[in-house]
């Protein structure tokens, strides 16, 4: 029987998309922290590659060409996004990427931390060029010569930019649980305590200086300021999950940005929120919860359970 399945022709645009899209996505997502914006950037990079060839440009290395295009497009996009980020309501967190199986973006252990919410939140303090130089060198192992060509700076300047960015990143880095098995065991116990409403169990599993960050973006009711301390975070989580249980909302264990986490879904399997954990030294160090519906749409249908109108700060309450 003849095989009528279609496969990318070697050397074609389709084969290059199959080969290089994971790398382009990995670079753009770490730069932008947005799945939707990353998809747009990656698509534009491939379109520009196609146009360049139509105009007679000889592209000797599609991988290098696409990496440079993707990075430059991401830098330009970040510059325009700065104003929006500065006016963002509450804590800004990256759009969560849920790992089901073993996606190319985080297949290597050393790559997983670079896509964690903790790491990407620290990257927010860097300028777009600093962010690009640091990621290309530290995460993707590009040479300074290659980076200089991409960001259009001198090699010496790139070395200085990298050193400055690395000092900042290292100063803000949290430790992660080195053992995946231990990390997952802590997460299982933690989420089980959440579902039971076991305050004592939660407090025992939380580090003394544990922090909770919520990202509602002003679209839904959410914690707008960090909550710090094992007791305070434990009480907050026990209250949240108590309300979830009453509403028939359930928890599905997943990996979020390379770290242990959970997807919270309603009775219709629509996404309510995504929760990511940082674990180290046998304790949960940080809990990050994304409930902004605009940051969850790429995961499927989003629940409307939390999308009641949010009262602007200082506005009078209705009687």
Summary?
The chain is α+β, with helices and mostly antiparallel strands and 319 residues long.
Rg (C-alpha, Å): 21 Å
Number of helices: 11
Query: Which regions contain 5 or more consecutive residues with pLDDT less than 50?
Result: 101-107, 308-319
Q: The biggest beta sheet, please? A: 7 strands, mixed
What features would you describe in this structure?
- Helix 1 (13-32) runs parallel beside helix 3 and helix 9 (180-196) packs across helix 11.
- Helices cover 49% and strands 14% of the residues.
- It has 2 domains: 13-172, PhyR, sigma-like (SL) domain (Butyryl-CoA Dehydrogenase, subunit A, domain 3, Up-down Bundle), CATH 1.20.140; 180-299, Nuclear Transport Factor 2, Chain: A.
- It starts with 12 loop residues before the first helix and ends in a 29-residue tail after the last strand.
- It is globular, with a radius of gyration of 21 Å.
- Strands 1-4-5-6-7-2-3 form a 7-stranded mixed sheet.
- 37% of the residues are buried.
- The protein is α+β, with helices and mostly antiparallel strands and 319 residues long.
Spell out the blueprint of helices and strands.
Elements: H1 13-32, H2 35-54, H3 62-86, E1 98-99, H4 109-112, H5 117-123, H6 128-139, H7 144-151, H8 155-172, H9 180-196, H10 199-205, E2 206-215, E3 227-228, H11 230-246, E4 250-256, E5 259-265, E6 271-280, E7 283-290
Parallel strand pairs: 2-7
Antiparallel strand pairs: 1-4, 2-3, 4-5, 5-6, 6-7
